[in-house]
Every structure is written in C-alpha cells, then in structure tokens.
Amino acid sequence: MTDSFRAFDDSALLDFGKLGIIASAESREHLLDTADQFRAAAYDVIGRTVDLDSERELQVVLFDELGLPPTPGRATDTATLYALRDKKSHLFLTHLLAYRSIRAAATR
Fold this sequence. Notes:
Elements (H helix, E strand, L loop, with lengths): L2 H4 L3 H9 L6 H22 L8 H11 L12 H10 L3 H16 L2
C-alpha cells in the first residue's frame, strides 16, 4: 500500500474535483493507480468483486449484504453516500467514496 493510500483525505480530493482542476498526465495516472487501490480495498472488505459504478450491485452490497440503512429510494449517488457515511460509517463505503472521488478528479 502506498503512502498516498494510507494518508488519503477524500474531502480534499472532492474539493479538487469540484474546482475543475485538471491534472497532468502523470498526476492523472497516479490518481488512477490510487483509485485502483481503493477499488481493490473495497473488494477485500466484502470478499468479492462488484461493479462500483452499478447502482443495482451497490444497492445489494450496501443495503442487503452490509445492512446499512437504506437511503431514500435506495440511491447510491455520491452525495447521498457521503450523507450515509456521516450517519453510519463502514469501511466499504469509505473505500467506495475514495475510489469515486479520485476517479472523478483524475478524469477532469
């Protein structure tokens, strides 16, 4: 695991993405590598792979398998999941949100 993985602050990266700051090609590659580490960490928490961009698959994992309280309409958009994390933290949710934030920043 890299130091950037251990010291990740997703709130800072979320702000980075919201500002529309464009990363260099080298930075983008580093961000994507870091996102891949968070994706793998999320898989490790639940013991299998899942499409982290699939609303249906995330609904099953978050609400059915992990027993997190359902969001209105079982929504899995990023803003809703940040609100859920603030109410009921789970390591899978933390890794999922880090993955999404980093991918968003890398693809701007």
